Amino acid sequence: MKHRKKWIAAALAAALFTGLFTGCGGASGATATSTAAVQEIAQGSGEAGAVADTANGTGGQTSLDSGALTPQDSRKIIYNATLWLETKQYDQASAALLEAASQAGAYVQSSETSGSAERGDRSVYYTLRVPAEHYSEFLNAAGQAANLTRRSESTQDVTAEYVDLEARLASLEQQRQRLDELAAKAENLEDLLAIENQRTQVQYEIESYTGQMNVLKDQIAYSTVEVYLDEVTELTPQSPSFVSRVGSAFRGSWNGFVAVVQELVIGLIYLLPFLVVAAVVIVVVVLLARRAAKKHPRPSAQKQPGTDGANQPPKYTQMK
User: Fold this and answer.
1) N or C: which end of the chain has fewer CB within 10 A?
2) Which residue intervals make up region (Disordered) (predicted)?
């Protein structure tokens, strides 16, 4: 009986020792697992870059199928244009231009005006944001609002950059979800702080890439069109001849000459008060100088002895 009790006590002690050992090992394993998971997530930035490079066809041997992107639907293109217009009827042309923008669903991002109606040299500069689907329609309508002298267009394909940002954001979102799961399972403060630090870095990258993505989306959805509208007295011919070019050059030269003369006259008017004061000062100085000369006349030159005619030796004439 005594031996049986000894065996039972030994078995209980062994079970207790085994349980304690297993518990300590489990806690240590949980901590190691959590730390390893954080380290794995910490390498996520490199994985995000690898995913993005793969999307661009530069990482590994995997690349996007070129046939997966159709020009109409998936290509991400930014359209920009600049128009130079002139008109004799400035108010009507400006109103027609703004009406064309309104019809296209565009809005004025910025504007700048100069000149005056009295001189007939008004001008306005618009920066318009036009929906991409109405881009060509607006350019045609704006060209009819006034005399179009010049038109410039450019396009920028940002498909690769757009896909790159999408891939990076998708990878970072997965990292953030994984970090949230680890934070919920963290069993000590050290692991929780490590997870939160990594999550902060991931969140910062997500916000940065999201900002870049929003800028791209805005530029893709709304084209930028710059418009210069000038008020003129004579419209520029669409195909100017040599004679018209000579006449235009002469008119420009004459207008420049008239402008210079006008500026000189205006400058003289500005200087007129100073000239009057200077003239008064000069007159006063001259009068004072003359008065001083009258009060103090110069002494007459005295004759030197031996210079009169009586003391001069007789002149001899040569006999022929």
Assistant:
1) C
2) 296-320
